[in-house]
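Re: that chain you flagged

S.,

Sorry for the slow reply, it's been a week of failed gels. I finally had a moment to sit down with the sequence you sent. For the record, here it is as I used it:
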Amino acid sequence: MVLRRLGAAGAVCVVAACGPSTADPADRSAGEAVPSAAEATSTPTTRKLPATGGAGYSASLSARLVTTDALPPGFTVDIATVLAPDAGRQHPGPEVPCADMIPLLSAKRLTGTPSAMAAATVSSAEGPDYPWVANEVLRTYADDGARGAMADLRTLIARCPTVASPGQDGGSYRFAVVPGPRLGDESMRVDSSATSGSITLEWDSILVRTGTTLVTVHEQGNEPGGDDHLPRLAEAALRSYQTTGP
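Prediction finished late last night. Pasting the structure tokens below so you have them in one place:
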């Protein structure tokens, strides 16, 4: 239960890109959601959609995020209006320590520069003591950035499958590309975990490319084996994106 609570508290980290950064030090995340103003009309569920937000926020792309009617009962979807930029076109070279690339290795950030982004926190109070929490992130690209981001992620994980914790606790991180659902034009699943002593915390991701768009879902801070909802969320997120736009 402690691990699950940690996952709930860390849900904002995917949207705000918490952790070490390989991008320009001037890149900053954070901030709170801007109050909603506009009504979304392109999704099956009528919901309040924030009309404006911070740099990188796209109201039109946010309208294509998964909605609660596509998920099991009890789920909630909270749209983010503050999104940190991705790492840009500068690929980490061999001189960059693996410990500095943890956000990239876990797919919380990606290489490349999306032309638009949207994100939401998806959660379900499935138990009396903890929620199941994940994030959906949509990225559209004006070029072949979606394909490149997935290729770069595979390369980085092959280079750094195990990373010593930047702290002094003797812990470690592990990253692996593993078999997952076959979705869209191309898809991949990334399993990430952090171990400290006898405690292991997992946060897994599924990335789906459809044309020049990446649909990514990240599960937050679960105990090993607690990822039952992730494939279903990936399928629902992809379906929502494909059925709410041109």
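What I noticed first: DSSP finds six helices and eleven strands in the chain.

Talk soon,
D.
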